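Is this the right way to post structure tokens for a design question? Let me know if I should format differently. Anyway, here goes:
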């Protein structure tokens, strides 16, 4: 099974991230995984692109994973920490797109996952300790690509949708779109997932794994921080 780990970065990776990546690779390659026709043999390649232009970085990495004919693409951002079991756990879900909700790199902080509520309004999805303990996996509209697994078998479905519009060769999947009803732009990750959803691809969040993912700033922000700062974050957004 070919898995492309795609890491966009601006400069060097963070030390705690590098340690998390190493531990995850060791755990993934050491774990016996059964497939339909016997043990699964992982072939893992790491792709990284460095510049201050994140949308271009992501597009370069996506196309590299496609050219390598990856079965799965694991997005990792170079300023996160995560458990060694992360890749194995996301693979076990067998979902088209499944990622982690994590705290934004600001204080007060809030979650990166969101759902579309009635009337088309976008509202945040919070990962709480209760949801994490229940190991809930929830369908959402958006999630960050800091730790997110994509089953590349969705590509023909996405290509068919893209070819109805600009065409595959002209597709800019990470070009930032405007938030409906607002002047501000979406992030490149939300814009990309919006394209997938337009093709009928469903997006999910693993709340249990999310609880153990941290975003590195001057200190590591977790969902515990997001939950504790919920009211302050919502007040800032209103």
């Amino acid at each position: 099974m070919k898995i492309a780990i795609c890491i966009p970065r601006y400069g060097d990776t963070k030390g705690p991230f590098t340690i998390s990546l190493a531990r995850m690779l060791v755990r993934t390659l050491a774990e016996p995984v059964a497939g339909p026709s016997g043990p699964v043999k992982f072939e893992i390649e790491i792709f990284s692109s460095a510049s201050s232009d994140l949308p271009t970085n992501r597009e370069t990495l996506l196309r590299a994973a496609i050219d390598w004919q990856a079965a799965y693409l694991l997005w990792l951002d170079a300023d996160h920490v995560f458990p060694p079991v992360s890749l194995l756990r996301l693979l076990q879900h067998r979902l088209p797109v499944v990622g982690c909700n994590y705290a934004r790199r600001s204080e007060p902080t809030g979650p990166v996952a969101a759902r579309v509520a009635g009337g088309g309004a976008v509202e945040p999805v919070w990962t709480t300790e209760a949801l994490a303990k229940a190991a809930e996996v929830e369908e959402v509209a958006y999630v960050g690509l800091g730790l997110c697994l994509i089953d590349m078998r969705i590509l023909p479905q996405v290509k068919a949708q893209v070819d109805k519009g600009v065409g595959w060769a002209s597709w800019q999947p990470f070009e930032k779109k405007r938030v409906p009803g607002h002047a501000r732009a979406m992030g490149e990750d939300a814009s990309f997932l919006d394209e997938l959803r337009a093709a009928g691809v469903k997006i999910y969040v693993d709340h249990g794994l999310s609880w153990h993912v941290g975003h590195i700033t001057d200190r590591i922000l977790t969902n515990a921080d997001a939950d504790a700062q919920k009211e302050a974050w919502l007040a800032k957004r209103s």
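Format looks fine. Someone answered above. Worth noting: The mean pLDDT is 94. The chain is about 35% helix and 25% strand.
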